[in-house]
Amino acid sequence: MVLTAGDDAPTVTAPNQDGDTVSPAFEEPTVVYFYPRDDTPGCTIEANQFQRERETYRDAGVDIYGVSTDDVDSHRSFCDSEGLKFDLLADSDGEIAEAFDVDLRDGATARTTFLLADGKVEAVYEGVDPDGHAREVLLDAVDDGLVTLPE
């Protein structure tokens, strides 16, 4: 069963696309989105839309992390080919998916997004439609009072 709103954010550590170890604290508003595979159509749409909204997320004080079971090299290639400037965490062993209770199907994570703040899960999105999702999460964070968009 996937974590739900009000649950404590898990403690996770994983390498990003550069091989650097990342351990998000989830104290500041943070989006963690799980996606099945690098370089697939839906995942590319979702990543590109998070990239397109990245400045607005950053201005609002929200961090973005993408997570899949692809390895560091795959993430590096995906970031390079798509111009992604946020961290993709390599969850090759499925430990992050397990910490968030996200299903693995045929070795790939189910498309699920978490909005976290103050060490807690604020919202969960399951069965995500990649098109428009990045904007939806940002607007929900504003509507929930977690962040304010700069004028």
Automatic annotation (TrEMBL):
UniProt source species: Natrinema versiforme JCM 10478
GO cellular component terms, A-Z: cytoplasm
Enzyme Commission number: 1.11.1.24
Keywords from the UniProt entry: Antioxidant, Disulfide bond, Oxidoreductase, Peroxidase, Redox-active center
The keyword Glycoprotein appears for this protein: no
Similarity comment: family membership: Belongs to the peroxiredoxin family. BCP/PrxQ subfamily.
Coiled coil: none
Phylogenetic classification of the source organism: Archaea, Methanobacteriati, Methanobacteriota, Stenosarchaea group, Halobacteria
Name used for this protein in its record: thioredoxin-dependent peroxiredoxin
Domain of life: Archaea
Positions of transmembrane segments: none
Gene3D superfamilies for this protein: Glutaredoxin
Keyword Acetylation: no
